[in-house]
Design brief:
The chain is mostly helical. It contains ten helices and two strands, in the order H-H-H-H-H-E-E-H-H-H-H-H. It has helices spanning 14-17, 20-36, 40-57, 65-85, 89-94, 111-136, 140-149, 154-183, 194-225, 244-267; strands spanning 99-102, 108-110. The N and C termini lie far apart (56 Å).
C-alpha cells in the first residue's frame, strides 16, 4: 500500500510512545534553537540529532519524499535569489571580504556570502525532519490534546486534528477520481497540450472539491448533534500522562534551546558565528 504524506501509522518504539505534549515541547525548543542561531556548527548538530530521532522512529523515506522535493526546490530558488539580489550581504554581516570567484563587478562569490547562504539553507533544511517527525509520529487526536494542554483553545485543536486526519483521505480521493477520469479517456500525460491538461485537471479538482465539502458538512453536522462547543472545556480520550521518558525528552529540548542561547550570547557574542576574525 502506498504511504501518503501525513498518514499516521502506529508503531511501537521510543518516539511513537512519547506523549504528544513532550514531543510538542521538544519540537518547539529545537525549532527555536535553530531559528535563533546562525552558527552552522550548532545547526548541523541539531540536524544530526533530528535525523537520529527520525531513524529511531522507523519512519519510511517515502512518507516525506514529496515534502523533500518541495523543500529542495524552495531552497534552490531561495539560494539563487539571495545571491542575485544581495551578492555581498555576507561581507556586510561578517565585516570582512575574501573573494573566491569574480563573475562581474557586482556578482562576486565570497567566502562570507557562501557561509551565510549555506547556513541559512541548513536552517531551513534542519526544520524538515523535525516537523515531519512530530507530525508523523503523533496521533492527530493526541496532537489536539497536546495543544489543548499547552493552553490552545480546544476548538482550534479539534480543527487541526480533523485537518490532519483528512489529508490522507483527500489524497486517496484525488487518486481515485484521477484514475476514474483517465478510464473515461482524459489524458494527463505530456502527449496532450498544456491547455488541454489544465482543462482535464479541472475535471478532477471539481469532484474532489465537492466530495470534500460534502465530507465537511457531514462531520460538522455530526459535531453539532453531539453538542460540540457547548462547554468551555473538554476531556481527551487519547491524552497520555507524562512519564519519565517524557520528562527526559522535555529536558533534552530545553537543553538544546539553552545551548543555542549560550552559543549566541556567550561563545559567539551574536547570532552569527564569524570564523573570519582571527
Amino acid at each position: 500500500m502506498k504511504t501518503n504524506l501525513f498518514d499516521y501509522r502506529e508503531r511501537d518504539n521510543l518516539i511513537f510512545n512519547l506523549s504528544g505534549l513532550s514531543k510538542l515541547i521538544c519540537f518547539i525548543c529545537m525549532s527555536v534553537a535553530v531559528m535563533l542561531s546562525y552558527d552552522i556548527r550548532y545547526i548541523l548538530f541539531v540536524t544530526v540529532l533530528s535525523l537520529l530521532f527520525f531513524r529511531i522512529s522507523e519512519l519510511r523515506f517515502g512518507q516525506i519524499r514529496l515534502m523533500l522535493i518541495y523543500v529542495a526546490i524552495f531552497l534552490a530558488i531561495n539560494f539563487i535569489l539571495t545571491f542575485l539580489f544581495s551578492p555581498l550581504y555576507g561581507t556586510e554581516l561578517y565585516g570582512t571580504r575574501h573573494d573566491l570567484l569574480r563573475i562581474t563587478s557586482r556578482y562576486v562569490i565570497t567566502q562570507e556570502q557562501l557561509l551565510y547562504q549555506v547556513t541559512k539553507t541548513c536552517k531551513y533544511l534542519s526544520m524538515v525532519p523535525l516537523g515531519m517527525l512530530f507530525l508523523l509520529t503523533t496521533n492527530p487526536s493526541e496532537f489536539a490534546a497536546s495543544l489543548n494542554r499547552a493552553f490552545v483553545p480546544y476548538k482550534v485543536c479539534c480543527v487541526l486534528s480533523l485537518t490532519l486526519r483528512y489529508f490522507p483521505d483527500i489524497i486517496r480521493d484525488y487518486h481515485s477520481i484521477s484514475l476514474a477520469q483517465q478510464s473515461r479517456g482524459l489524458d494527463f500525460s505530456k502527449k496532450e497540450k498544456l491547455f488541454t491538461r489544465v482543462k482535464n485537471m479541472f475535471n478532477v479538482l471539481l469532484p474532489l472539491i465537492l466530495s470534500t465539502l460534502d465530507r465537511v458538512t457531514v462531520v460538522s453536522n455530526a459535531m453539532d448533534l453531539r453538542g460540540f462547543g457547548k462547554e468551555k472545556k473538554r476531556t481527551w480520550y487519547v491524552a497520555k500522562p507524562l512519564v519519565g521518558k517524557d520528562i527526559a525528552a522535555i529536558a533534552l529540548g530545553i537543553a538544546i534551546l539553552a545551548g543555542s542561547i549560550y552559543m549566541t550570547n556567550v561563545v559567539n557574542g551574536s547570532r552569527f558565528w564569524n570564523p573570519f576574525i582571527a
